[in-house]
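Here is an idea for our session: we take a single protein and study its fold together. Which protein we use is up to you, so please pick one and set it down. Once you have written the record down, we can walk along the chain together:
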Amino acid sequence: MRTTKDRIRHALGFEIIGLLIFAPLASLVFGFELHLMGMMALVGSIVATIWNYFYNILFDRGMLKLCGTLQKTVLIRVLHAILFEGGLLLLFLPVIAWYLNISLWEAFKMDIAMATFYLVYAFVYNWVYDQIFAIPKHS
């Protein structure tokens, strides 16, 4: 399993790079000012970082129990990303609606667009991260 230090490096790298890409893109796509999208992205990043830490521990424990390994196939990576984003959607939807003063339906549509972006981003980031910082093999 990954160490706490490695999980922190993973989570911080994910969120920092994601913020730098997402905030300007979201401002352009959704038509809100950059500072509003930046603040929403920052709060979302904090929520996502905390969720990421606990989610990955639970996912790894589940993989070890069900599969006996932490090596992820493409299908497992897709499942990992979808489950992560689904949980985050439930946590963050009310925050989006409140902060941007929009309906839950509008927030849901925005959240789906954000989740789609982060779903693709999470898949690529985690794949690259695992290539750079390989998971130790169990003996």
User: Anything to note?
Assistant: The CA atoms of residues 39 and 60 lie 31 Å apart. Residues 34-67 form the longest helix (34 residues). The mean pLDDT is 89.
